[in-house]
Fold each of these.
Amino acid sequence: MAPSIETNGLTKTFASVLAVDHLSLEVMEGEVFGLLGPNGAGKTTTIRMLACLLSPSEGSGKIAGHDVVKNASRVREIVGILTENPSLYERLTAYENMDFFAEAYNLSNPQEKQNRIRALLEFLNLWERRNDRVAKFSRGMKQKLAIARALVHNPPILFLDEPTTGLDPESAKGIRDLIESLSRYEKHTILLSTHHLEDAEKLCNRVMIINKGKSVVVGTPEELRDRIADEPVLKVTLTKLDNRIIDAVRGLEHVRRVSIDDSSTGLIITVDDTKSVTPEVVRSIVRADGMILSVNVLRPTLEDAYLKLVKEERT
């Protein structure tokens, strides 16, 4: 199966500034692929080249097999883009904004256009506000309308640049739920640029960390967490602790270190392998009359992996 999004040595230079440096990536059909990186890493510039808003200085990019330079008009027909600043027409109503962009995408059949606009605004809980001027909308409502605008021509591929920036927690969750729904149920391919590691961890099948326009690493969130994990660690929370329980755990063959957590009722246990050792740990605690409330494997977060990998790239 051919990639929906593909770049090979994609490069963009502004005067003497190298914004994107020979970037190569593949995003498969139906995948949510995250671009992660600090400010100025080249995420937005990459998206703008792939959406045919900027021309590459070198290299190539293809969207569903169409070259972003040679077939730019076709690419624009099959992608939807949410920029970091949505740039809606605030003097127009929500419906008028949607109608304007539907016309721009050549949705000329009046009934088909009306049905599509209504379906999107209802899906995003904006139909009741369709006749309100956008200037009256909250940031979250504007973001939803901008996504509806990007979807009006039903594109198979979406570029979303910082879709939850500046939103309150409830609105941000609504946008994440929408992205998940678009990927899972409507099979859109989504390239997501974000500073929010929570968004990437929850939504992305794979991510690429970029820094100074270059790819640092590509993988699933799980693979990136594994890459920086040093030793497997268990956290066992109990109703109470005593020396008998601690000594029982320390005496196990495959337990390396045992410490007490800040709550004074939990054990932090470094082991050789969580799958094989966890049952032994549980048995030893129960035999020592310990009452276990929970057992968890402590693993690095995607944020931990991101911070460490970017730091390594800078040094």
Note: The chain has eleven helices and 14 strands.
Amino acid sequence: MKKTIKDMRPVYVVGIGLHKYQYMSETTFVTLGLTAVREALADAGIAYPDVESAYTGTALIGMAVSRPILRHLGASGIPMAQVENASASGSTAFRHACLDVASGISDVALALGVDKPAPLAAAASKANIRDLVGARVVPFTHFALLANEYMNRYGVKAEQVAAVAVKNNRNGARNPYAQRQKAVTLEEVMAGSPISGSLTKLQCCPVGEGAAAVIVASEDGIAKLGIDRKRAVKVIASVTRTERVYRGAKNFDAELTRETVAQAYEEAAVGPKDLNLIELHDAFTIEELLYVEAMGLCGEGEGAAMIGSGATDIGGKCAISASGGLLAMGHPIGPTGAGQIAEITRQLRGEAGARQQPNARLGLAHMVGIGAVCVVHILQKGA
């Protein structure tokens, strides 16, 4: 019988840290990563020698990223591995750290995400298999086409799709780690530079640099190191899937999300109505509408109305992208998924300040990546 993370040892997030997401600078990836890890260690109240394994999610920097960063904290000889899974790299690093702890291999594990802007080099382009699409439809055009199809099918206006950017930039304005920290009006979003179709600049995520670190521990590790159990957040589901053939589907990312989230719900024994928070892959505004529907928060074609009602605002029924999401928090690739876990942890602890979702007890983190892969985690307040 296949095991899930709930069938093994309980896993808890005990430390989180970030380096602010920002546009490309002269800051080295070592400084980015160290800033996040040191903040996570301080947050957990432990020292680096207490960490027993480490995974670094990165997509753009190059080989062997972990050691040049972590050697500055000491040469403890722990196992390290680099994780590349496109946009889901940080999410996958977090999953591996959780599995180390759940299986008993480690009592304390580190998941780090770090990246700096660099040319994308997807392996598929080197597979010697002809792609009928090729470079003709870049990501923003792909999602502009999906937005156009969605609006035509459900009678949704471009302004309703753009409202996602208004909400998420409003949230990002309250987040000191966000790349975009300015609230914007719907008029400003609509009047922005056109990127493709109805998508304007503010409806597309910025890709910059940054880092996010998460420390997870077992109950034994928490007791041994004297970690504050009141601030420990439990991981109750960890699921990753890759795409299948979805006949007749308009969007394979949405179908992959539907399957992955459903499996996570089953693993955690919860449903969409139980969620108080979601951090999702909103690289483009239309994605948020497609994914909230795929996650079962509303029916097909109802995402725009749901977001327009305020139900997904901070203080609403389920706050979506309280961090600002990829649209405002930013999408530095490697750190993005780990940063989502940090935001949900902060919210479940009640430490999110001006963007705090009241009475938050259950949060879901969702990332997709080219390939295509989807990684979903569900976290629960209280140890």
Note: The chain has twelve helices and twelve strands.
Amino acid sequence: MGRSIPSFRQLLEIEKLKWSSFKRLLPTKRDKQEFDKVFDSVKLYTTYLGNASNPVPLESVLMGAIFHDYKQPLQITKEDTAKLDESNLKEGLISLLENKPKWKILFYRFSKKWHGFFAFLHKEDRLLLLKMILEICSYNECTSNIINIQDSQSPIDYFFFLLSMIIQQKRINRLNIDKKKDVTLLDFMYK
């Protein structure tokens, strides 16, 4: 008797196939290669994302890609991730929860939904993910007003994803300030 529920690796391939018409419409061969790289980067986290039990595979793809993209600039710039200390991150979390009540909602909703992903990551990646979450949830109090406008789960998740991408793009722009050239996340990651 076979499995009735596909593994996350199978869901990832199905999701990639669903987006194949989008890939075909991309204008250049390089864009198509970048599309494949996004899905390839998510494959690095299939074991962990499979534990997230997310009913929307595309959200898991986005989460895996965003987390991988968050790690890349840190590794390329050799930002000292060894300084990541659980106690410092816990202090940041306590400060966030006490001082920014609107962001507390985003943090708890994110933590509840992605608990399986977070819980099964290796310690170093778990600390990096917590750092990423704290950066996003500490971003700007004005942008947190959207949390009160929409009460459903999906807009909150997409709000989190978009904020993550904005923060990453700002980091990339800071790195390229000397070049005086606008660089996107994909340009930076796959040089």
Note: Residues 41 and 65 are 6 Å apart (CA to CA).
